[in-house]
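for the recovery benchmark. tokens below, seq after
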């Protein structure tokens, strides 16, 4: 029953994300093993929408480690647990909470022992900057701890790069790029544990820098980003952009798009006034830009179909079910057409 529930949510989220995003590029999915223990290591530029995007484009049932703050409310904790989410405690959650990670790590060991998959964000927090930050060694504690407990266990690590064209804006475009599988056993040496940790972290970090657009976070960062934005590059073309960065060449990779769909946007706004109103009310309370996409997607995925359904029932009352069905299908198609055709220039705002 839990697997059915998981797959139903996954299907709902995948469909909803394709309404929310203009383009979702998935590259390298063939490198994912069809069976056996796998740890997915993902960079973290854009809040909780990051795991949703990766998960809905994974062929396997997955487990996740997410920050403990999300689990504060009992009802939310119960719901998230049914979807294979587990809390990870950090120093900011309080030193007294860190002891709870021991149980979580043991759960991760068992997940690997069963030949299942786990997803974590080794940077430790989200940040919209186009850079791969230093990785926490927490993931090495999980991997090496599992190898120590189960000598015959093999754990494959797959780095996953996420690159957004226009994070926090609608519609977004994103590239999900899976890296080359890393057999963690090749790095594990219990007699030289510190060296093993450093070597594995470096290998994962190096891959993440190639799998996502990586701009070193130094004094030149802002100028480099500004040059790329001015050139109107397609950031989801990750390999090309990283090549341009290495060559210090900032040429335009796509024509600048004009918004010729303003009339369509106004029609959708009029037809969806209350969902828009709910979103705008919530948006004022979001204090981290990395959570804009998360809340916008979550609210819209629920309120838009619910509102259209209610309006269709009203239309049915006065005009019959055929007109109501036409209204419902048309409303959904208009949103889809706008999402897939609206411009995604990085300077555009919603």
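predicted aa per position
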């Amino acid at each position: 029953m839990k697997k059915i529930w998981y797959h139903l949510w996954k299907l709902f989220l995948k469909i909803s994300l394709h309404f929310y995003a203009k383009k979702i590029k998935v590259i390298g999915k063939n490198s994912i093993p069809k069976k056996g223990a796998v740890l997915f290591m993902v960079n973290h530029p854009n809040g909780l929408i990051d795991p949703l995007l990766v998960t809905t484009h994974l062929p396997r049932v997955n487990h996740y480690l997410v920050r403990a703050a999300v689990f504060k409310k009992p009802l939310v904790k119960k719901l998230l647990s049914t979807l294979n989410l587990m809390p990870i405690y950090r120093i900011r959650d309080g030193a007294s909470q860190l002891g709870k990670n021991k149980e979580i790590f043991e759960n991760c060991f068992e997940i690997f022992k069963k030949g299942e998959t786990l997803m974590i964000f080794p940077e430790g927090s989200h940040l919209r900057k186009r850079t791969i930050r230093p990785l926490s060694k927490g993931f090495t504690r999980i991997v090496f701890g599992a190898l120590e407990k189960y000598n015959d266990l093999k754990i494959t690590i797959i780095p996953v790069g996420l690159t957004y064209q226009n994070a926090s804006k609608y519609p977004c475009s994103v590239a999900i790029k899976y890296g080359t599988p890393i057999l963690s056993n090749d790095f594990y040496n219990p007699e030289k544990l510190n060296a093993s940790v450093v070597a594995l972290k470096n290998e994962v970090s190096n891959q993440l820098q190639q799998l996502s657009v990586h701009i070193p976070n130094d004094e030149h960062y802002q100028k480099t980003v500004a040059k790329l934005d001015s050139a109107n590059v397609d950031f989801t073309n990750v390999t090309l952009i990283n090549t341009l960065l290495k060559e210090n060449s900032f040429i335009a990779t796509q024509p600048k798009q004009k918004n010729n769909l303003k009339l369509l946007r106004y029609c959708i706004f009029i037809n969806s006034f209350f969902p828009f109103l709910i979103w705008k009310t919530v948006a004022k309370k979001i204090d981290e830009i990395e959570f804009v996409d998360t809340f916008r997607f979550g609210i819209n995925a629920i309120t838009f179909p619910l509102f259209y359904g209610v309006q269709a029932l009203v239309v049915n009352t006065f005009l019959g079910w055929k007109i109501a069905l036409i209204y419902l299908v048309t409303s959904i198609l208009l949103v889809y057409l706008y999402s897939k055709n609206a411009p995604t220039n990085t300077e555009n705002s919603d």
